[in-house]
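lol ok so funny story. i was supposed to be doing the assay writeup but got distracted and ended up predicting the structure for this chain instead. priorities right. anyway since i did it might as well share w the group, maybe its usefull for someone
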Amino acid sequence: MSTKPVYKRIMLKLSGEALMGDKEIGLDPEIVDRVAGEIAAVSKLGVEVCLVVGGGNIFRGVSGAAKGMDRVSADHMGMLATVINALALQSALEQQGIVTRVQSAITMNTISEPYIRRKAMRHMSKGRIVIFAAGTGNPFFTTDSAAALRASEMGCNALFKATKVDGVYTADPEKDPSATRYDEVSYQDVIEKNLQVMDTAAIALCRENNIPMVIFSIREAGELAKVVCGNGKFTLVK
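and the output, tada:
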């Protein structure tokens, strides 16, 4: 089993739900600390890490719009939720001795840096973890799209999507016990078979910029470090 990282620079996409544990809403401090530990372990391997976190554990723009709220306002509220999650992760990471920076696509000078590509790349080259908050800063775009966009801008070698399951399956394994996991699948098959890995815009952006996507389970302790080294269970989308 290799202990040498396969990738030099990665984008990690975390959902907001990954941070709330068994709660119905909000953050579970124990889960936040555990996830931070997973990220810190990878950083200590010498991998340059940036990440995008969703805000669905606090507020989801699409859900708000579905209930009659103005979609633009709802999406802006969702972006603010991602900032809360980003600050929580920053605190948890720094408690583990990892230097971080939060860069927000919506300017909030008192709590974060504005998103500046060259500055973010410099932070990463110095071993700092950069957390990109507020999505793309634009309504109608998901944090999946934000992750694909920032991964492209940062020149990442891969986009890691942390999920509840250990890869991409032919169907939802929680609903269909006969579902089987793909070891590898193409971008085109993901779109044509509607495998719901990420939204179509994110997949298209990764395909256009030749960024492989690695789908793995964040629920398994130590799995992120294993997958970064080419071990463990995951699906490679390329």
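The radius of gyration is 17 Å. Residues 135 and 143 are 5 Å apart (CA to CA).
back to the writeup now i swear
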